[in-house]
Task: structure prediction
Amino acid sequence: MTSALNVALGKAQAAQLGADEIALAADTLVVCDGEVLGKPDDATEAEAMLRSLRDRAHSVLSGIVLRGGDGREWGGVVDTRVWMRAYSESEVHTYVARGEPFDKAGGYAIQDAEFRPVQRVDGCYLNVVGLPVCAVAAGLDALGVPVERPASLRAPCEYCRQGARLVEIG
Result:
């Protein structure tokens, strides 16, 4: 968990900011059975990752850091539990052949309209997409940047559950 936060912190601290600017940095890890699945290097690795995730659960951890030009920092980690569906070998080959897995931790995109690899999500949907908006809003609030949103969207991950309905495909 801390490695995602440390990488995000390093990215945020590398940003050159004006006094009134805020850097947003994130790093996402897919973790299954204690093993971190990064971005696959090639088709063989992508297929192996997708097979290892098939028909089972894993965690998606995102470290989020906001850093103000005045040096103030806020960081947090969002943990979402994801259950993959029992996709076929043919579906894996087709998905990998499209070149989709190579820029994604764990080799998949929850929002992919053709592959649709995920069966169920417990937690922040947008964390699995790539950026947990609820955490960003919390960080902005902590840095004194007001974020307008209804009270119903302030509970943990409610903002992202609302977002899931907006970006869900099919």
